[in-house]
Amino acid sequence: xxxxxxxxxxxxxxxxxxxxxxxxxxxxxxxxxxxxxxxxxxxxxxxxxxxxxxxxxxxxxxxxxxxxxxxxxxxxxxxxxxxxxxxxxxxxxxxxxxxxxxxxxxxxxxxxxx
Length: 114
Fold this sequence. Notes:
Low-confidence stretches: 1-17, 21-26
Strand order of the largest sheet: 1-2
Order of helices and strands: EEEEHH
C-alpha cells in the first residue's frame, strides 16, 4: 500500500484514508502546517527535511524529504483541496470550510504576502 500523502489538484484531490482535516487555526498551543493549516499534534504529522529530520513548519502531506509535495499548487488550489477534505470527512459543509480556510490560508507562511 502506498503511503498517504496530501491530496493535490494535480491528482484529483482525493482524500486519503486517515487524513486529518485542515482546521481553523488550531488551539494556540498547537503548531499548524504553514501550507494547509493542519494541526501538527503528533510526531508523524510533521513533514521531513532533506536529512530526514522533522520539519517544524509543514505537515507530511505538504512537505516530504525537503520539498513541497505539490510545488506548483496555488493558494486557490490548496483552498479547494482543504475544502474537499473537510467536507468529505464531515468536519463542516463545503461553503463553511471555504469561508474558514479562505481566512486561514493567506495568513500561513507559504501563502502570506511579504
